[in-house]
Amino acid sequence: MPLPGFDETTFSHEGESYPVFRRGSGPGVVVIHEIPGITPPVADFARRVADAGFSVYAPSLFGTPGKPFSNGYMVGQMARACISREFHVLATNQSSPITNYLRALCRKAHEECGGPGVGAIGMCLTGNFALSLMVDESVMAPVLSQPSLPFGVSAAHRAALHVSDDDLAVVKRRAAAGCGVLGLRFTNDPLSPAARFETLRRELGDGFEGIEIDSSRGNPHDIKRSAHSVVTLDLVDQQGHPTRAALDRVLAFFAERLKGRGDA
To answer: In b/e form, how buried is each residue of 48-82, taking b as 16+ CB within 10 angstroms?
Structure first.
């Protein structure tokens, strides 16, 4: 299914092929969608990134591009991801195999767009992937939006980062050298637990910038306790709203790292 305003291509790497939707010009940013796929809110976010002066590469890893979100659609695609050999949803100290493909896509975006490097944002099931992508020197602006792997079946899983020890060592080295990480989550979100951000702060120190949006009962912005998707489904696009502030920070983060300035 085509996405209005995007050019569709196919990118293949080591036997894996997925559609990739392109839009915009400027430094590359790889937008990795959440469950259940590139829904209209995910496509809208990708358009915002492109319209801010970036070349968006949005691979479609599962689901039907452009299909609206529904609970049934979400459950079906979650089940598909859980049995896929490309996603290891319970791995604590191991990256999902799909990250090898995504690293190659980041390199391609850098080759085509030039500049100091590329940005990458993962969401929900793919939220932690930006950490794994940092192993590639081309990734200069990694964003973790509501990172949800591994699924929080135990305290150890809730605190884990879904990266190998070797990859984490590279992430820590790069973060200490100035390639920091931006993370986003709602405070009441059990899929993206507070313990995971605590681990990121402990491991990366000043190299991690965490934005945690209050979704507790009675919060001042009436954000629902079930809120999960910070820059897509649960975005309130109004000045002064914390989700809009988080979106603006993501765009500024990309601009700082990829354009050398603090505005998007």
So the answer is: bbbebbbbbbbbbbbbebbeebeeebbeebbeebe
